[in-house]
Amino acid sequence: MILLRPTEVDDLSYVVAAEQHDDNNAFIIAWTYDQHRGALFGTDLAHLIVEDESDKPVGFIILAGLESPHQNIEFRRLVITEKAKGYGQEAIQQVQRFAFTRLSAHRLWLDVKESNRRARYIYEKLGFREEGVLRECLKNGEQFESLVVMSILSHEYYQQPA
Ligand SMILES: CC(C)(COP(=O)(O)OP(=O)(O)OC[C@H]1O[C@@H](n2cnc3c(N)ncnc32)[C@H](O)[C@@H]1OP(=O)(O)O)[C@@H](O)C(=O)NCCC(=O)NCCS
To answer: Is the CB of 24 under 6 A from ligand 1?
Structure first.
């Protein structure tokens, strides 16, 4: 069982270390401490800590587009540091509930590296559909990487089996 709560300034050393860890940094585009700090106070963004039952941080989430007139919420980041315990899937389900029931989202979307099989698997398992591929849009050293855009619409969320 996990809980999402707003990130505080004191959490940022955990957030930055999690992002820079070898287990995670290949899958995301890491922010600086100042970028994360700025995101805590932006009204268009939600920066959230994922906590386990003993209130220990086990991950973090960033959502963007909260003020979008199009009711499109971007699931911008998900990092789980205690892996393979089901926390990632639980966190995604809580984000879906928050986006569709509290923020009245019409569409919840994200992009994920094409090579990130684990993340793509759980997004698809939880109802996200692939929209297309941004081919070789990221340069990583001498390699180019592609991003897959995925989304779930409000009616698809509500049609999912409980
Ligand atoms: C991706 C991430 C959020 C998943 O969180 P997690 O808590 O480890 O994941 P869970 O334990 O909830 O679920 C893992 C699932 O992936 C499956 N899986 C693991 N490795 C896999 C792989 N290489 N290919 C496909 N599926 C895989 C597991 O079998 C499990 O599925 P199941 O429950 O149906 O058996 C986490 O590992 C992470 O932070 N990764 C690095 C950052 C990242 O990739 N973020 C997402 C960027 S879009």
So the answer is: yes
Pairwise CA distance, residues 23 & 81, whole Å: 8
| pTM of the predicted structure, to 2 decimals | 0.97
Task: Report the number of distinct structural domains present in the chain.
Answer: 1
Q: Is 88 in the pocket of ligand 1 (CB under 6 A)?
A: yes
CATH of the domain at 67: 3.40.630.30
Task: Summarize the chain as % helix, strand, coil (round to 5).
Answer: 30, 35, 35
User: Can you give the pLDDT at residue 162?
Assistant: 74
Pocket residue to mutate for ligand 1, from 29, 49, 80, 146, most atoms within 8 A of Cβ: 80
Mark the ranges of the chain whose per-residue pLDDT is less than 50. Answer: none
Q: What residue numbers bound the domain in which 102 lies?
A: 3-159
